[in-house]
From TrEMBL:
Keywords assigned: Coiled coil
Ranges in coiled-coil conformation: 15-115
Name this protein carries in UniProt: Uncharacterized protein
Source taxon at top rank: Eukaryota
Amino acid sequence: MMTRKATAQNTEFKLRQTLKELKQSKETCDQLLRDREESEEEIKKIIAKNSQLKSDLAELHSQHEEVLYQREQLHNTLSSCSKEFDTYKRALQRIDDLERELSVANCQINLYAETQQLQETLHTQSLFEELMASPGTPLTPQCLISTNREVTHHPQSIKKVKKYVRISKFIKKIEKKIKRNQGYHRNITLRKEKNSLIDSLEIYSSKLN
């Protein structure tokens, strides 16, 4: 059997061992508390970082929406510019067509004037020859050369010739005026249309710039 002394020593040893274990447990608890505090600080940092990331994400989303809106606006602008450019090209083509039509119209007017003048000259000459060759008015070289002799020998025929010549000249003047007015109105119409197209071109050019 163990003596009291041995029992006391054994008890003391157990107490010391228990105290040592308690001390180790306390140190472990202290370490766990420190780890917990560090973990809490880390969690707080993570939460703050997460909040910042959410804010940044919301800002990026807003910027993305703005970029999409600007993209749509740019697409509409490009589409409008494309249509205006097509209109600009058509207007240029129309101006070229009008200039060609104007040139052709001027050529036709000049040709018509020359043709009318030639026809009137031939008609007047035909009337003159017909009158000079009518009965009582023989056509002779002397009649064609000498006006004084025509007046002396054939006063009635000469009066008729002069009358027809005056009428022919009057008709010729009237036809020239009508022709000039027609050509003038035609040119005015073409110029107005051309000026209108030029104004449209200037508007489209200013929009494109």
